[in-house]
Amino acid sequence: MTGLDTRPPAATRPAKLFPVIGVALSAFVLFGLFDTPIQHAVGIPLLAASLIAAMLIDRELGKDLVLIGVGIGIVATTSVEADVSWPSFIRIGTVLALAVAVPFALDRFLYRRQVIRFPWRSREKKTRLEIGYLIAVPLLGYLILPFYFIRSGAYLNWPPLEDSGEVLRFFVGVNAVGTWDELFFICTVLTLLRRHFPLWQANILTMVIFVSFLWELGYRSWGPLLTIPFALLQGYLFAKTRSLGYVLAVHLAFDALVFLAIVHARNPDWAPIFFLY
Q1: Distances (CA, A) of 174 to 46, 82, 122, 125
Q2: Of the four, 6, 78, 202, 272, which is 20 to 30 A from 85 by CA?
Q3: pTM of the model
Q4: What span, in angstroms and rounded, lies between the C-alpha atoms of 193 and 173?
């Protein structure tokens, strides 16, 4: 089965689910419970035990989970809380780049295959519904995101943005992380899990890892009410369209409103486009 094959796999042994659930739960601990005593004391052993169990249950599953586990482990080496200072900007950027590049290189040069791929566009024309969704995302973001960030106080999880340099780095960071989300969670994690599980199972498991990362990044309070459906939709749309370009366009359209909403919340006079807040 290729990295882009969206057909359900053959019947899956229930035992194969347990190590994958363990990997997803390890990401929840490492990202969702960041800066707590159990973060690394529980998260890393759980991740390691899950990878070993996967190898014992199904070698191919184990090999794919190792790639996912390597990416999760690399990200877990540092805090990904939003920070636009130059040292943090470089540190987080380097870690996220490695979390995509290392699994990709292992897939190519150690496993000698091409499962992890980044298909920019598919040959299929987009449906009216898919085009409509691309338009609807920024409109929904305009209505929902300022309400979420301001009413929940979640905007305080992002830096103050005191000058134009910080705003520019924040803009670059928002777009870079949004791009990374699709490269890692969709093109890497979801693609690898789809080789072993039906889409709905692979998508839910990917969502747990995705939303846990976004929680550490700053989408807290009732943020998961937004990030859970978004993560599930992104996974479904990638499986349906087989186009990184499409899901990335959706994501960056949404992130443009994230950027504007946080700038507005931090400095209302800088982005006075949200008339209701």
Answers
A1: 30, 9, 26, 29
A2: 272
A3: 0.93
A4: 28
